[in-house]
TrEMBL record:
Region (Disordered): 1-43, 103-137, 437-465
Biased composition, class Polar residues, residue ranges: 26-36, 123-136
Protein name: Uncharacterized protein
Length: 548
């Protein structure tokens, strides 16, 4: 056993099952070796994004026999998390790169009496010989300024959506009988415009109304899914930076006469820009601001860098479907809460999946029709329906007071979803840690290391020392990677874990079962013994011409 392994064993030794997991002493020493054969650290694992495709079939909205959905998938939610981090980066860049923006003091109000007019005229004559006074734009207002500019840029882009779809249709391959047009990476808008589109699409009623004003020969705008595959291709998984392609930049500049980079646009704005208006009256600024809470929560939890990303998303999907298939689905409760102007808290993972689902409006609408069929009106029913409140939908116990945005007293909303708790749930799905658990832990021990509910029946007692060391090693390694990112240092490395090796074996087994499909200028032949073999054409040009 190596010295490093013995050190980790001692650091994870003792009865760790009786210690509050948030007080664990995690390993922190990892090598940054770049020797040949050393596995490069890539977090998150790119495999989690591979199923982020856009289904065209309306049947994708249906729930399968295994109680699962085609859309959204874990991959869509993972791209969603990465995009939220990109939005957060844009927000931080607004605070740093707009520090030179100044606000000129307002001019005096117009005067109406003769005496006031003379005083104002005298003041204006004196001001002509003085330089204009200005102040720095406060940091919180810099982000608001960027949002308002982004809304103007989004409106110009949105009003040209028909031209974008015409162009995309000409270069789209239609497979099968169902033709659908979705935006690829060469049609993506800049990040600030994407943020406004994101917030706009989450307002289902206004978005559906706006989409009804524009039609194209091949697809309605309302049939577009949020372009998850294109966003995945535009994201740098290491830095989570969003970078669109050069063709996408040129297309945006051609359509809007503006630079794709909003901060570059601010440095040299054009002398004159038309300001089109959306066909619906909607407070886009308020919609974007309402997304800030969710962006902050995603950044605080940072699931996209978590050692239990896959497990966290899978559990969130199960909770989401369980809620949607209950007698009071989320959509119905949300509608009632909005009508009563009540808060509608959701666990972070459930809210993530719900928002991801709503970002494909057509499929989400079909899904809602399946789980909550529209009531059939009867001639005798002449009374107007009564709108129930959110408290009535939830039994009156799970809705917080309107005056508070804090989570309700319900255990589900008070649950901890940090890296530590989520990693434990990979091994113990029923593990629970709430504020009440924390208070019991701190009050039951006078030592500096708070002990969790020390009981033989504690959930952590079911874990073996090897499992606890594995959890601690995963947490320590991922925290070390984040510290290295913050310092812009080389990322630490470690040998493959048992879980990673098992995942690789399963991946290799699936790949062997599926086999490799023929590529360009290749064809499949069946040998006399029944085996299939892929061969490459010797006359590439002739085959290509025949295919064309």
């Amino acid at each position: 056993m190596s010295i490093l392994s013995r050190f980790r064993g001692r650091s994870a030794g003792g009865d760790q099952a009786q210690v509050d997991p948030h007080q664990w002493r995690l390993p922190s020493s990892y090598s940054t070796s770049s020797k040949p054969g050393t596995r490069e650290t890539v977090i998150p694992n790119p495999r989690i994004f591979r199923n982020a495709f856009v289904p065209n079939e309306p049947t994708a909205a249906r729930i399968g026999a295994d109680t699962s959905l085609v859309y959204p998938d874990v991959s869509h939610a993972a791209v969603h998390l990465a995009l939220l981090e990109s939005f957060q980066r844009l927000r931080l860049s607004a605070a740093s790169r707009l520090d030179d923006v100044e606000v000129v003091e307002d001019q005096p109000p117009p005067a109406f009496s003769e005496d006031e007019k003379r005083d104002v005229l005298r003041e204006q004559q004196q001001q002509q010989h003085r330089p204009p006074t200005s102040t720095k734009l406060p940091e919180p207002e810099r982000w608001d300024l960027l949002i308002r500019l982004a809304i103007t840029r989004f409106t110009a882009w949105w009003m040209n959506m028909d031209r974008i779809l015409y162009h995309a249709t000409a270069f789209t391959h239609h497979a099968g009988t169902h033709a659908g047009v979705q935006l690829t990476k060469d049609y993506l808008p800049p990040l600030d415009v994407l943020l406004v589109w994101y917030a706009f699409m989450l307002d289902e009623e206004s978005y559906t109304t706006a989409c009804s004003y524009q039609e194209t020969p091949t697809a309605r705008i309302g049939d577009l899914c949020f372009p998850w595959p294109a966003i995945r291709d535009a994201l740098d998984l290491d830095s989570l930076a969003y970078r669109i392609t050069r063709p996408a930049e040129n297309l945006f500049a051609t359509l809007t006469s503006q630079s794709a980079d909003i901060l570059t646009y601010l440095e040299g704005p054009p002398a004159y820009v038309e300001c089109p208006e959306l066909p619906v009256d909607i407070d886009l600024f308020g919609q974007v601001k309402r997304c800030e809470r969710f962006m902050d929560e995603a950044h605080r939890l940072l699931w996209i860098r978590s050692p239990s990303l896959q497990g966290s998303l899978e559990r969130a999907f199960l909770q989401y479907l369980e809620r949607q298939l209950s007698p009071t689905p989320i959509s119905s409760v949300a509608t009632a809460a909005a009508a009563a102007q009540d808060d509608f808290p959701l666990p972070f993972g459930v809210e993530l999946v719900w928002k991801t689902h709503r970002l494909y409006p057509r499929l989400y609408r079909l899904f809602r029709q399946e789980i909550v069929p529209a009531p059939t009106p009867t001639p005798t029913d002449t009374k107007s329906p009564r709108i129930s409140t959110a408290a009535e939908w939830l039994g009156g116990s799970d809705v917080p007071e309107r005056s508070s945005r804090q989570p309700s007293s319900s255990k589900e909303y008070d649950e901890c979803y940090c890296w530590t708790c989520e990693r434990i749930r990979d091994d113990i799905p029923t593990f629970s840690y709430t504020a009440a658990t924390q208070s019991r832990s701190s009050s039951s021990s006078s030592s500096s290391r708070a002990t969790a509910a020390a009981s033989p029946l504690s959930p952590l007692s079911t874990l073996s020392p090897t499992q606890i060391r594995s959890i601690q090693d995963d947490l320590g390694f991922h925290l070390a990677v984040e510290r290295a990112r913050a310092r812009h240092s080389p990322l630490p490395t470690r040998p493959p874990t048992a879980a990673e090796k098992a995942a690789e074996r399963l991946e290799a087994k699936k790949q062997a079962e599926v086999g490799r499909l023929p590529g360009l200028n290749e064809y499949l032949v069946t040998m006399p013994n029944g085996k299939k073999k892929i061969k490459r054409s010797k006359h590439t040009n002739m085959v290509y011409m025949a295919m064309v």
